[in-house]
Amino acid sequence: MKQFLFFFMLSSLAMAQTEMQSYSVIQKISGAEIRFYPPVMMAKYTSKNEGSGFGKLFGYISGNNTNNSKIAMTTPVHMEKKTGENSMAFVLPKTFTDVNTPQPNDSSLSVFEDRGGYFAAIRYSGYTNTSKEKEYTKILQKLLQKENIAASGSPKILVYNSPYKIINRRNEILIPISLKVEKND
Fold it and tell me: Could you tell me the residue range of the domain that residue 135 belongs to?
């Protein structure tokens, strides 16, 4: 328990001055956004247990990797909750590529380039929990249906703040979408 609290305290300090994953807002619709996320390197932990992995991921960016190098904390933390499988992922700073990203020493972690793409996003405040995640996922799914936008994958939960930030908290639900963008010649 002490180790867990230590990781969260350190992360709260790190998140105060962190790089945020970049995206472009393509369109705003009824309290939600359509966004484009460029490719980015990520470190991920997958488990049957919900909420696990933070300590392992924090260890990786703290130097438990093949270069023994410290990697700056970024925001948001990505989480996916599926039947029988949950994952947590850290976005790595923009300076990392598939060539220069150190591999984790912990074999339960994977490092990969997320291909990015188009997503529908809805924001909510406060501390995230299962009830809020389900509520905002349903709101976003209904909005996509209303707008005739096809979902192309499972929802993700994005958490932007450390647990010690009490006010002005930012969380989001992202749903990958199929979107054709017309190019002007």
Answer: 13-178
